[in-house]
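Need a sequence for this fold. Nothing fancy.
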């Protein structure tokens, strides 16, 4: 009789509810890298909503994309209401001039990073990923895996649960200089690129975006703290079809695959 009663109670029990998915906020979604990150976040369906910071309203045709209109004055003070996102992604990127819609996206500037981070923290964001592409061999080795400026130290001290600075190597600008001296300097630097180790070479934008989106989705479940992803890590993840294993091993503090590239045959 007790077995029958247990079965009847089980039939009337409410089904377990699935855990709610978090929401993400992207700042800098108009550039080449930012737009690729935005597309991958929306396609991955890992977030209930993907909000993007814009300076003017526009119709979002992609499902799950929610524009959040702000002005520079808004960021100077605490937001009046929660931003509706637990994780934020700031992408410092070159502007993409594919069409006029890119002008609607907020373009973050490096000097505004501390104020922007304070605004995000006051709006309820607890996990922050900052993508800072840099020119090859422009940073000392110690700073590639550490905090490189006082602004970054300020952001790390704000109280976020997770802060990650991602430093992918940046592809050189292909625009031709008008000055003769600048063209000479560009030619010298072009020769120096061959001296940069392969693991510090730029990788395709799509590969960087794949690494960043995996990082954003896996970061909340990792141990709290501040981390810096050096260009070698981004390069290593780009060698695989799926960067998830590399990202998870790095977040867990486990040993990564060797960074050496296979020897090229001449």
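Here you go.
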């Amino acid at each position: 009789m007790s077995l029958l009663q247990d079965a009847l109670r089980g039939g009337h029990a409410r089904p377990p509810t699935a855990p709610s998915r978090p929401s993400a906020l992207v700042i800098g979604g108009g550039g080449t890298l930012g737009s690729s990150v935005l597309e991958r976040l929306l396609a991955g369906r890992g977030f209930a909503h993907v909000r993007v910071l814009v300076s003017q309203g526009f119709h979002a045709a992609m499902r799950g994309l929610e524009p959040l209109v702000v002005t520079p004055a808004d960021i100077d003070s605490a937001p009046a209401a929660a931003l509706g996102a637990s994780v934020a992604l700031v992408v410092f990127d070159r502007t993409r001039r594919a069409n006029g819609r890119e002008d609607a996206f907020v373009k973050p500037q490096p000097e505004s990073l501390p104020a922007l981070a304070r605004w995000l923290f006051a709006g309820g964001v607890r996990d922050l990923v900052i993508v800072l592409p840099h020119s090859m061999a422009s940073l000392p080795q110690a700073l590639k895996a550490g905090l490189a400026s006082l602004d970054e130290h300020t952001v790390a001290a704000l109280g976020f649960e997770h802060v990650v600075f991602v430093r992918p190597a940046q592809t050189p600008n292909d625009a031709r200089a008008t000055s003769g001296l600048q063209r000479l300097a560009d030619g010298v630097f072009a020769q120096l690129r061959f001296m940069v180790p392969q693991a510090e070479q730029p990788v395709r934008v799509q590969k960087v975006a794949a690494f960043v989106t995996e990082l954003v989705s896996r970061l909340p479940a990792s141990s709290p703290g501040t981390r810096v992803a050096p260009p070698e890590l981004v390069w290593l993840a780009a060698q695989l079809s799926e960067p998830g294993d590399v990202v998870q091993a790095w977040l867990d503090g486990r040993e990564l695959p060797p960074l050496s590239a296979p020897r090229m045959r001449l």
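For context: The chain is about 35% helix and 15% strand.
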